[in-house]
Amino acid sequence: MVTGRLEDNLQPVADATVSLVNATDSSLIAFSRTDSLGKFSFNHLQPGSYCLSASHINFHPQWKNFEFPPEEDSVNLGRISLKDKTVLDEVTLRAQRPPVEVNGDTLEFIADISSTIDRGSIVKKLNTRFTFGTNIAYNRWVNFIHSGTPAKLIARQ
Predict the structure, then answer these.
(1) pLDDT band at residue 136 using 50, 70 and 90 as cut-offs
(2) Minimal CA–CA distance to 142: which of 115, 114, 124, 123?
(3) HEC profile for 18-55?
(4) What is the model's pTM?
(5) What is the pLDDT of residues 92-101, one digit of tens each?
(6) pLDDT of residue 87
(7) Phi, psi dihedrals of residue 65, rounded to the nearest 5°
(8) How far is Cα 102 from Cα 63, in angstroms, rounded to an integer?
(9) Are strands 28-33 and 2-8 parallel, antiparallel or unpaired?
(10) pLDDT class for 67, splitting at 50, 70, 90?
(11) Cα 94 from chain centroid?
(12) What's the pLDDT tens digit per position in 21-65?
């Protein structure tokens, strides 16, 4: 017999699905649901290596490998903690604008720069790759000609 208990912060997880698979070939041996106390059990198992899968709609799935030795009648897997899906440890949001946008008949090259960067140095670098027109403004954007098409470098802060 194999027994155990599913819990979340020491509280029982009822009605979770618990599956038992053979560790060597991943074949399903048995499955069950936890009771109101979060307990589960499997009877009439042969000695061998097993993987236990515990899942519930509100929790991340959990896997536990274990051995059922021939000299034992039962194995108690103890408490198995499930992690709540609604609780996040850390959230990192990242967004990046595309490097080029077409805005009407103008190409906009996006340059995410800080206010400490000299915009004149950006123009000098671009001047090695593009032919500039006469309308150059250093405040927020630089208008220039790229392959005969009006273009604009937008400096975002």
Answers:
(1) very low
(2) 123
(3) EEEEECCCCCEEEEEECCCCCEEEECCCCCEEEEEEEE
(4) 0.55
(5) 777 655 555 5
(6) 73
(7) -90, 145
(8) 49
(9) unpaired
(10) very high
(11) 13
(12) 998 888 888 898 999 999 999 999 999 999 999 999 889 899 999
Cα 18 off chain centre by:
24
State the average pLDDT over residues 76-105: 74
Which pair of structure tokens corresponds to residue 19?
């599956």
In total, the chain counts a number of residues equal to: 157
Question: Which pair of tokens denotes residue 121?
Answer: 């140095």
Pairing of strands 17-22, 48-56: antiparallel
Sign of CA dihedral 63, 69, 73, 79: negative
Residue ranges in the chain assigned as alpha helix (H) = 119-127
Residue whose tokens read 């906009």: 108
Spatial contact of 39 and 3, defined as CB atoms under 8 Å apart: yes
Do 1 and 76 form a contact (C-beta atoms < 8 A)? Answer: no
Q: Which amino acid is residue 42, in one-letter code?
A: F
53/126 Cα distance (integer angstroms): 57
Tokens of 111: 């340059």
Is residue 82 scored above 80 in pLDDT? yes
